[in-house]
Amino acid sequence: MGHLQANGFKVKTNEVTDSQLDAIKVKYGVPAPLQSCHTAVVGGYVIEGHVPADLILRLLKEKPAVVGLAVPGMPSGSPGMDGPPEPYDVFAFGRQGQARLYARR
Fold it and tell me: CB neighbours of 1 closer than 8 A, spacing ≥ 6?
């Protein structure tokens, strides 16, 4: 949350149970292999996991025909995660669950 706020996003947090979060992921079409710990909706796009703010801004500027972006798991060094940075992938995903590489960090 701090990473997004530091990059100009207004963040509203909703505390939910695990089962409620699972239902949210289903509602917004987050494919199971791409799921992570956080789900957000920004400008009509779904943001799943620790997606860097600059990539969310790029998504909002480019407006591709995708449902959203996802960083599966919780990679060390991604925004909001402590530890030594490790390479990770950011995926764009569509309505049918298809995913493609959007960026590599």
Answer: 11, 13, 80
Q: Is 104 exposed, middle or buried (0-12, 13-18, 19+ CB in 10 A)?
A: exposed
pLDDT tens digits for 16-32? 999 999 999 999 999 99
C-alpha to C-alpha distance for 105 and 97, rounded to whole angstroms: 22
Is the Cα dihedral 93, 72, 25, 63 positive or negative? negative
What is the C-alpha to C-alpha distance for residues 31 and 29, in angstroms, rounded to an integer?
6
Alpha-carbon span 18 to 95, nearest angstrom? 23
Look at residue 61 in the predicted model and tell me its pLDDT.
98
Report pLDDT for 1: 76
